[in-house]
Prior knowledge:
- The chain is of the alpha+beta class and 66 residues long.
- The protein has one domain (4-64).
- The protein contains 2 helices and 3 strands, in the order ββααβ.
- It has helices at 27-42, 51-59, and strands at 4-8, 21-24, 62-64.
Amino acid sequence: MANAFSYACRDCEGMEACPASVVAETKDEVWKLVELHAQVAHGENPAEWDSKTREYLGTLIQPVNV
Length: 66
């Protein structure tokens, strides 16, 4: 059974060259790290993401064992 969640930016369409990835205990923590990464590394404002973007990104957060 998975005990953490992960996100790899390179899995996002258009971000294949980005090496960033995060692993955290909860999906909420991963979301916060994804949003911070998007701001710092890609100059995006997560507050401007629409529901479809958030839904898509949510599919990229995967359960993992660490």
